[in-house]
Amino acid sequence: MNAFVAAYLTQDGLANGAIYCLLAIALVLVFAVTRIIFIPQGEFISYAALTYVALREGHTPGTVGLLLALVAGAGFIDLLREGFGGLVSVVRRSLAPVGLAGLAAVSARFGLPALVDLLITVALVACMGPLLYRIVYRRIAQASSLVLLIVAVAHHLVMLGLGLYFFGPEGVRAAPLIDASVSLFGVPVQAQTIVILLSCAVLVGGLYVISERSFYGKAMRAAAINPIGARLMGISAELAGETAFLVAAVIGAISGILISGATTIYYDSGFLLGLKGFVAGILGGLASFPLAGIGAFGVGLLESFASFYASGFKETIVFALIIPILLWRSMAKAR
Amino acid sequence: MTTPGLLLDARQVTVRYGKIAAVQDVSLRIREGEVVTIVGPNGAGKTTLLSALMGLLPLAGEVAYFGGAPMRAPSVEALVRAGMGLIPEKRELFTSMSVADNLALGGFDRWRRGTRDQADDLAEIYALFPRLAERRMQPASTLSGGERQMLAMGRALMARPRLLLLDEPSLGLAPLVMRDIFRTIESLRARGVSVLLVEQNARAALKIADYGYVMEAGCFVLEGPAAELAHNERVIEAYLGVATADRTPAPAVPL
Ligand SMILES: Nc1ncnc2c1ncn2[C@@H]1O[C@H](COP(=O)(O)OP(=O)(O)OP(=O)(O)O)[C@@H](O)[C@H]1O
Ligand SMILES: [Mg+2]
Questions:
Q1: Would the pTM of this model clear 0.80, i.e. be above it?
Q2: What ipTM was reported for this prediction?
């Protein structure tokens, strides 16, 4: 390997690492607030990438129908819970997602600019997060972590199946947001790589500021630190869960759009990406954001160099990383 | 069937852990402006009763809040919104967050509903507990026991409750700090906050309360105006110590 190849692999590793970093943060956040090991995180990526490309190509993506179904389902459950007195609030909560679905259909029909499609996609997938929490997890929020994990696996399988149904087995690749390449120290660097790294930095920085400074961010942290104390302040487990899912969905959607400009995404690609985010999250015991972030870049670089030296074992090497991490963590705990 | 001035009307409340009833058939009322106390030995079911009244545990029986109709299985959040507050026995502070953030979160529900006077409330809490003002940037986990109790109280007051349930505010505190805490409880009445106080320190509790209940093994065995309970033979024997009968000695904890 010469320096040129190394620089190229590093570039690739960092770009993937940035995506894993975002996913790991979403996983740690959801786990801290709800105790759910959120296996379906990856589906947000596939859904976003495939939705975005469908809109660009002028089809109405199946996710629009799914969003409407989720709105109807959640509304129905709310009516069962609250009676018809809750009708007004159910309708009010449904307005935004329904409007968004309409906008997506309009864009597919008439072809709106790429930036609008991008925003529609992120908003569409973002809306799904809280709705999925309401439908799937709200009732069982107090269940054990194991039950929540089993439900999360089932949830993942359902979303995977729906992904195949909506988008078919073909992969898609979006046009990069900026198609160019610059030369850095004599090494060509894809503009998309820079976009990914910058987006990651902005998102991570934004989330940090929100959680430290905004009242909702503080409420979320409070719910993660002490759920009973938070409930006594009127921060319901429901509010915290929905907010965590919203953030996770936004992160997943943005990651999906970013990565679809760099690699081909299939209906099941998100799962594998999510799992690598999970490996990174494990490094911090699903509890530390900085360790998860460091782990994510480690995973990205390891994967990139592994693909050069032993491309057939690329995935094996990355997932085998879990073993030393868990050993290290349990030894650190025993001490 | 609503009664003005009645903040809490609990009838025949039973709370179970599995099959075991930790609280059985207790009825209690709290009127506006009252301090009501529940005294009793360890394991009597006092904490269980407060948790259930706050919606943290399911209960059987009828509980009407703030003169409304009895509610079935109200959520904690709904009760907080209605004006209930609980300072739990374990305090449940946000340990890794600063004192200031803990206090701010006390006002979260009011802020979320659009009220924006939290800065005034915060200034008032700092005036009430100057110690908290000195330590506003310190993580809650580094506070002393007494400071934690002050923080728990300040955080609960930030929500401007109409009825505050207090579980063992003097737990593990030195007499001087305890005196401060009891003074604060008395001052709550002047602010229009009614209090349901659970205390091991029956002497101090009965001294500031208007009305009291004695709880043993999940049931109320005695109730009456606090002054009368303080002179009741059985209460004196079990909770106040023999020495205080018929005399009005300087209490161990000057109030
Ligand atoms: N989660 C639980 N599961 C089963 N039993 C419980 C649980 N919590 C409390 N108990 C039991 O219920 C009874 C009442 O407990 P509780 O904490 O209400 O007593 P208390 O009056 O507050 O006592 P103390 O003065 O020591 O705080 C005790 O016998 C206790 O062991
Ligand atoms: Mg107790």
A1: yes
A2: 0.90
